Amino acid sequence: MNDNEFLRALESCKLPESQFDHVAHVRAAYLYLQQTDFAGALDRIGRAIRNYATHHGKPDRYHATITVAYVALIQEHICERGNGGGWEAFARGSSELFKADLLAQFYPKPQLESEMARRVFVLPRLAPTRSAACS
After folding, report:
1. Which residues, given as ranges, of the chain have pLDDT below 50?
2. What's the confidence (pLDDT) of residue 115?
C-alpha cells in the first residue's frame, strides 16, 4: 500500500487493526510531517489515532504523551538527517525509533503510565544522568 493509500485507510478507519502497529504509527507521523509543520502533523496524527481507536471500540487507547514525544523525535530525526527521500529509506535509517523502550530514556515508567500522561502531554521527569561540571 502506498503512502496515500495508507493515510486514507487510517483516516477512514479501514486499515486493519493488525496493520496499525507501532511501525504504522511512526509511518503516519512521518507522512504527516512531510505534508505540514510540526503543529499540523501533531493535530492530524492525534485526530487520526483518536478516531481510529474510537471506531474500533477502544477510545482509551490514545496516549497524548507518547504521541507528542514520538512526533517530536521523528521531527528531530528529519531535521538532523533529512527525510530519507521517502518512508522506506527513512525507516531504514531510523531504526532507533522502533525500539520498544525508546521513551524509557526520557520518562520513568510510572510517569509514562500515568493517567495524566495519557490525557495530556507531560514533560519528562528523569533526573540528569550526569552532573554538569562547574567552572
Report:
1. 130-135
2. 96
What pLDDT score does 126 carry? 65
Would you say the C-alpha torsion 59, 63, 116, 111 has a positive or negative sign? positive
Model pTM score: 0.89
| Total length of the chain | 135
CB-based contact 45:100 (threshold 8 Å)? no
Contacting residues for 102 by C-beta, under 8 A, at least 6 apart: 73, 96
R_g (Cα) of the chain, nearest Å: 16
- Distance from C-alpha of 109 to C-alpha of 106, rounded to nearest angstrom: 10
Give the closest residue to 121 by CA, choosing from 51, 35, 54, 62: 62
Long-range CB pairs of 81-89, under 8 A, 24+ apart, other chains included: 83/30, 83/34, 86/3, 87/3, 87/27, 87/30, 87/31
pLDDT in tens, 52-91: 999 999 988 999 999 999 999 999 999 999 999 999 999 9
d(CA 51, CA 31): 18
